[in-house]
Design goal:
By secondary structure, this protein is α/β, with parallel strands linked by helices. The chain has one domain (2-240): Rossmann fold (3-Layer(aba) Sandwich), CATH 3.40.50. It has helices spanning 2-13, 25-30, 37-41, 48-54, 72-81, 96-109, 150-160, 191-199, and strands at residues 62-66, 86-92, 113-118, 129-135, 161-172, 204-209, 234-240.
Length: 243
């Protein structure tokens, strides 16, 4: 709880005037009674409080969650941004047959969530965004079946953000030098490679979190292997669109 309180204090300091005295976005989001029991059980391993703080999710923010799947983080964002904020659940066309239903269920539960479905490398949003977020999905977009120009996807995200807006990516680390070569076989991507790729779109690297790191992972196993599933070494990178 001390971690949650500290992060809440940081986020409250950045909140719009009039909200800082009454809103604890981290604590309120984590305590939301609509969250499934399975989500609560995963808060520690997914470092939910730390990632909310790291992503600067604050009241009134406009946030896009790229391929939210069942909605673990989107649910947290919907509460943290409050009724004046907005969460866009972006579902790739490639997975829409299964995942549109998840996003529609989120929108039915949270009035400030809206589903958008489309090609990743042609994504647009109805308004400028404060944060674009992707957790454990970016590597997949390099898999040929997604038919995605990832460089163009990153340019689209850059264009969608306000000046000073954040692009936050969490993913499974791959071995040094692996680049994107194991995205399909191991579902991992080298963090250094991803950083170069995102920076090429015009973003500035703005920090990393150690909250989801696990040095005991030797980076050799598929992330779904029972020996490492849920305990992979992950990087959390934050990029900023220059002002």
């Amino acid at each position: 709880m001390r971690i949650v309180t500290a992060l809440a204090a940081i986020m409250l300091a950045a909140a719009p005037a009039g909200l800082a005295q009454s809103v604890d976005p981290v604590g309120t989001a984590l305590a939301d009674p609509r969250r499934p029991v399975e989500d609560l059980a995963r808060d520690e391993v997914r470092a939910s409080a730390e990632m909310l703080g790291f992503s600067a999710i604050r009241p009134g923010a406009r946030v896009a969650d790229i391929r939210p799947e069942e909605g673990f983080f989107a649910r947290l964002f919907a509460v943290a941004v409050g009724p004046e904020g907005k969460v866009y659940a972006f579902v790739p066309t490639r997975t829409a047959g299964r995942e549109n239903a998840y996003a529609d269920a989120l929108a039915a539960t949270y009035g400030n969530v809206e589903r958008i479905t489309g090609p990743l490398d042609a994504m647009t949003f109805p308004e400028p965004l404060d944060v674009v977020f992707s957790a454990q999905e970016y590597h997949d977009f390099h898999i040929p079946g997604f038919q995605t120009d990832v460089a163009e996807m990153n340019r689209r995200i850059f264009a969608a953000l306000k000046p000073g807006g954040l692009y936050v990516i969490i993913d499974h680390e791959a071995a040094p030098g692996a680049g994107r070569e194991v995205v399909q076989s191991l579902h991992r991507i080298e963090g250094a490679y991803l950083r170069r790729e995102v920076e090429a779109a015009g973003f500035v690297f703005d920090g990393a979190s150690e909250a989801v790191r696990n040095p005991a992972d030797d980076l050799s196993l598929n992330v779904f292997d029972p020996a490492i599933r849920g305990r992979t070494d992950q990087f959390a990178y934050r990029f900023r669109k220059p002002d």
